[in-house]
Amino acid sequence: MTIQLDPGIASETELAAIGNTALVEVTGLDLPASVGRSRVLLKLESDNPGGSIKDRTALNMVREAELSGDLQPGATIVESTSGNTGVGLALIGALTGHPVVIITGQDTSTEKIEALRRHRARVVFADWEAAADSPENPRAVAARIAEGIPGSWRPQQFDNAANPSAHYFGTGPEIWRQTQRAITHFVAAVGTGGTVTGTGRFLKEHSQGRVKVIAADPEGSVYSGGEPGRVLVDGVGNTWPRSLWPTSFDPTVVDEYLSIGNDESYTTLHFLRNRHGLLLGPSSGLALAAARRVAAEAPDGSVVVAIAPDTGSNYLSKAFNPQWLEQQQIRVAGKLPVLDVGS
Ligand code: PMP
To answer: Locate the Tryptophan synthase beta chain-like PALP domain: which residues (predicted)?
Structure first.
């Protein structure tokens, strides 16, 4: 049985605040005049108490494991994660009496590391670039640490069905309700694929296949079919061969992939802050840039919903730091790029 993310389940604690995030319309996108009546909406997952969509995933994985008996009361949770899932697990662990150990990479933002420690998680650094079969690979490090802690449990979000189901039972129904079933396109960036798989599947099933699902892919990621390179959008994209893609991602849900360059993602991210006062993470810029392109090509009257996975307050030292942007050779323009319809 899957627990729905209903606020009633934990009314005494911050767990109650997970899910039921706002859906806001984004205007001023300079869409071609012909698409004047299409709308672009952004689901603000930054509203979750841990600051990201991963609170939903962490909560659902912990609840499922408690129900199945895989996670016993007081047992330790051990997970390798680039940050947001760790913050979600640390928050939920602290509230439900489970110690949490997070294995993360050296380039995880200092703000996310601080958030992990604030929720009393133990943080261990591993080599994020290490090959899948290397003992220094974060998952190998997590396995070793878990072996040394009797009764510990590893959520393994990349291969855990409770990851996409958090979105099938939470994010998807919320969007369906909030748009009053009018959504025509759903856009999400892909990390573990849990968001796009669970939300996309729900929306397709409930619209008899009408809703199109678009995966926004950063420069350097192979999901959209390109060569592996350096990915400069935190938490998303993949550089591994298809045989190693996460099982939490079901590619059959995706109708189309859009590869978005770093300049466009970060320009869109800064647009959101400057024009709308929304301080969000880089994958939100990526998803909105893709949604903008989708809206420019979609039939008049389309309703395009994109996911904004996390808050920008975790990236002040990176995405909103001019020096970091310059080091990464990312150019943030003052205006959104002009979209060529039909190109
Ligand atoms: N954006 C950010 C910042 C993330 O941390 C993640 C999760 N890794 C995602 C997007 C993608 O979510 P999912 O894992 O559900 O594909």
So the answer is: 17-310
Q: Does the interface ipTM go beyond 0.90?
A: yes
Q: Are 189 and 232 in contact (CB under 8 A)?
A: no
- Confirm or reject: Cβ of 50 under 6 Å from ligand 1: no
pTM of the shown model: 0.93
Closest C-alpha to 98, from 117, 78, 113, 83: 78
54 as an active site residue: the answer is yes
| Structural fold of domain 54-157 | Rossmann fold (3.40.50)
Between strands 185-189 and 303-308, the pairing is parallel
Cα separation, 130 vs 136, whole angstroms: 6
The two tokens of residue 102 are 């997070």
pLDDT digits (tens, 9 = 90+) for 92-144: 999 899 999 999 988 888 888 999 999 999 999 999 888 878 999 888 999 99
State the closest ligand 1 atom to the C-alpha of 81, by its place in the atom list counted from 1. Answer: 8
Domain 12-47+171-327 has CATH 3.40.50.1100: yes
